Each structure stands twice: as C-alpha cells, then as structure tokens.
UniProtKB/TrEMBL annotation:
Transferase recorded as keyword: no
Pfam families on file: ABC2_membrane_3
Superkingdom assignment: Bacteria
Originating organism: Geobacter anodireducens
InterPro entries: ABC-2_transporter_component, ABC2_TM, ABC2_TM_bact-type
Name of the protein described by the UniProt record: ABC transporter permease
Family membership noted in the UniProt record: Belongs to the ABC-2 integral membrane protein family.
Transmembrane helix is among the record's keywords: yes
TM region positions: 21-41, 179-202, 223-250, 256-278, 290-310, 345-366
Gene3D superfamilies: abc type-2 transporter like domain (3.40.1710.10)
PROSITE patterns in UniProt: ABC_TM2 (PS51012)
Topology of this chain in the membrane: Multi-pass membrane protein
Protein's cellular compartments: Cell membrane
Amino acid sequence: MFERIKEMVIKEFSQVFRDRRMKAIIFVTPIMQLLVFGYAVTTDVKNIATAYYDLDRSFESRELARRLEASGYFTITSTPAAATETRELLDRGTVLAAIQVNRGFARDLSRGIPTSVQVIVDGTDSNTATVAMDYASRVIAGYGKERGKEVFLHGAVKPARVDLRTRAWYNPDLRSRNYNVPGVIAIIIMLTCLLLTAMAVVREREIGTMEQLMVTPLRPVELILGKTIPFAIISFFDMFLVTLVGVFWFDIPIKGAIPLLVLSTAIYLLSVLGVGLFISTISRTQQQALMATFLFYIPAVLLSGFMFPIENMPTVIQYGTYLNPLRYFLVIIRGIFLKGNGFSILWPQMALLLALGIVVITTSSLRFRKRLG
C-alpha cells in the first residue's frame, strides 16, 4: 500500500513540476500576493492631504502648521484664501481635511485665554475621518500643552482634567500591517491549496488519465492520499515561504512557538484539502473547478473576520461562519504571531478546526470514492 502511495506521490510531483504554470503558482504567486497585499491591505492613515486656512498669519499659527506636517500624518497641499475655497477643495475631494486657525490665535495664547482651532474632515470614508480627527486633536492639544494653554476643537467637548495614560499591548505601535499580514498569509495558503487540489484532480479527468488510474491496482483511499499528500507538502512549503517573507521583509513579530504553528497549519490544511477535493467531485472541467473555487473562496474571506468583525454581522450569518475554516485559523495564527499564545489558549479553536476538517475530508473522500466507482 505504502509503495503504491509513494509512486502516486512521485507521479503527482513530477506532473506538477513539469508544468511551468503550476511552478509559478507554487513558488512565485504566493510571494507576489504577500508583497502586494502586505503593502496594500492596511488601515494606517498617513500623509492626509490637508488644507490649512490660516486667518491669524502669526508665528504661532505657522508653527502649528509645521507641527502638523512634522507629525507625518498631514501634508498641507493647499492654503485657501477664503472659506468658500476650503469648501470647494473638500467637495472636489482634493483634500481630506481642512484646518482653520481663527484670528487672534496668537493673541489668545499669549494672554492665556483658551483658544480654538476648527478641524473639518471628509466623512465619506468614516475610518479615515475618525483617524484624521484623532491625529489632529493630539497634535493640536500637544502644541497647546507645550505652550501651557488650552486649545480645543470646535464642536468638541472640553476634556476633563484627567491624567490619561494609554498603552497598547501586543502591537505597541498600532501597526495595522502586524494584524493584517498574518491574515494575508492564511488567505494565500487557502487559495493556493484549493487551486492545486481542485484543478489537479479535474485535469486528470479532463485529459483522460483518471480512467487509466482507475484500472491500476490503486484502491480509492490510496488514490485520494496520493492526490492530497503532494499538495499538503507544497502548501506547507508555501506556508514557510510566505512566513519568512512576512517576518523578515515586513518585520512582523512571531512571538509564539513554531511547532504550534506547524501543527495548527496541518489541521487547517486538512479542511482546505477536503474542500478542494469536494470541488473536484462536482466539477467536470478545469474552468468549472476554477469558478467553484472562487465561489467558495470569496465568501470564506469576507466571512472570516479578516475584513469585517464577525461580532458586527447579523446573528444568522455569525452562525454560518462556524463552517468556515479560515475563521478559526485567523484567530490561531494572529495569536501565535502577535500574542505568543500557546496550546492552552488556542486549543478550543484548534479542536473546532480539527472537527470541521475531519467532517469535510471524510465527506469529500466518500464522494470522491463514489465518483470513482
């Protein structure tokens, strides 16, 4: 049995590495996807195009503008001469924020009188608007504190005199890339494994070699293992490859145990291989397999918690996410990378993922054997 499986595995590897396109999918595509998504998938807000409407035209107002630009969050691209020009810049989307310093700003600071600065943001993108207002508040409040005076924003409630000290655990610099890149790694592994498994089996049927395999001494279970083991090995290799890129290129910390990451990846791949095997049983051509793969892949990503918090979804959809292996693996991989979580914390997610994987791979294998019969 093991000799037949070994020969089947060797045959699969030979077939994969003879195809230039498959080699590109295995070695080049995961790295390219991680590099592109690693830079693109970020919620960090920097270099916000800003209009600075200075009615005071004093040293203090110019110093405030310099502080805003020096923070790295704001780039002053326009200095309007009138309020109507500021509105037009916001309407056209030329700037995302407008800061107005009223007349008497320097005088009020010198006299110790509380003064105000108006910040207007484009609320079309609520996330960017919220972050921009927070950044502006901190920079302006810091400048006022340095001058020993109170500076507040129009429309904001005057803060109480409380010594507020904040600290972010696990991601001290609040880099969104630290949160997103581990998720991107999980998504890339899912896509690669799904495509390899679904397309390879269907390709055998499409070119007529599946019938040749069926008349060989191979039993159905041996054929299934021979088909899935090579892609599991390739997926593990891709996992290590993109993890190295994430750690050394994007400087993502990995605080947990590597053996635990390997174990959880094996459990994760059990589910993904099962889904790929199931897709191969319902597809007659490679085009159908490709369409079915993306029919599963896109909802799996959207409902995994990678882009949108699961807690904010309707209750019915939340229950549906329990059937998504990516949901569990995202918690596991982020816990290992950022928090250094061990098995004692992650075992519930791993147990649920293992149960789901066993059900999926068993169902897919039974259907695959039925199709062979």
